[in-house]
Amino acid sequence: MNILTFEDHQAPAEGEAGVLVLDNTVDPRSVSLAGVRRIDLNFPKFTDGRAYSQAYLLRRRLGFAGEIRATGDVLIDQLVQMARSGFTTAVLRQGLKADAAQRQFDRFKGFYQGDAAHPAPHFADADAAVA
Description:
The chain is α/β, with parallel strands linked by helices. It has helices spanning 50-61, 79-85, 101-107, 122-130; strands at 2-4, 19-22, 38-43, 67-72, 89-91. The chain has a single domain, classed as TIM Barrel (Alpha-Beta Barrel), CATH 3.20.20.
């Protein structure tokens, strides 16, 4: 996952081609993804998880292969779940340092269940490696 500090992130210009900013109330299935290379999903508060569902829908059900960027109240302890939900980039909340983010990923080396990034469960990957 690509981690950006608040200062490093540039919000897209109004109507910027190829970039779509989705509000939390928008169903991703209701918008056209033609020509879209980046989708910004917002976390207005760290307790608002609707963007996780939007990212998962975009990745797994709609097959969106471009960048999905988390913006807003993004905390370091959310990054692993964001990556598992389909986000490729996260913009940390103002005041947080990007170098601390890698420690969060180092704590969790793998998962048994599949996710948006790796749909096959751990046991299926292990069975394929043996075969």
